[in-house]
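If you are new to this repository, start here. Below is one unmodified record pulled from the training split, so you can see the exact layout before writing a loader.
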Amino acid sequence: MTCGIANKLRENDKQVGVMKPVETGCWNGTTRHPEDAAAIAKAAGCTAPLTTICPYQFDAPVAPDIAARLEGVHIDSQLLCSTFEQIAGCHDVTLVEGAGGFLVPIKERYLMADLVQDFNIPTVVVVASKLGAINHTLLTLEAAAARNITVRGYILNHVSNATDVATTTNADLLSRCTDIPCLGEIAYTPPAHNNSSQVVEAALNWQTMWQD
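And here is the target side for that same chain:
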């Protein structure tokens, strides 16, 4: 999703910075490579070093706190904040991609939500449209509201071609359960055929998303 947004912003002549503060599951069998960070950097045309875009890269596919403990690394939230300011200072728009969910621990009781607060940025919630999406989304929106974090909206992302009752009713039920706007609904597209820029351009209300 971040790749698609970055592509669209570039098409609108924006200088796009990106950041993936922490990425886990970076071991590809032969070497460590932060695949998500590399993908969003390429989509944005962001030339900052990958070690700046993604300051903390860990092998194990677990929560950042656990991944860091396994490698004996202390995650410095001040370093993450200063790195974000560095990237944001030389771009029109800076996109930050989370990891693991809004309330996942980055270190001890410092959560991804706390990092969003420290960065002082609005949020877009990407919802995997499947069974459990309603609970996940409403809890995330409630947690954001409790922290006075601005949520621009949510995006319903169909992660499979399933047509069960949950996936076909999530959009309607969410619209009745929250006043936070749905910015778009992304149909399932097999990875081999996925053009993220076109998918996002077709689905999202950009005026709503980026208005101040």
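Two things worth knowing about this chain: The first helix runs from residue 2 to 11. DSSP finds ten helices and nine strands in the chain.
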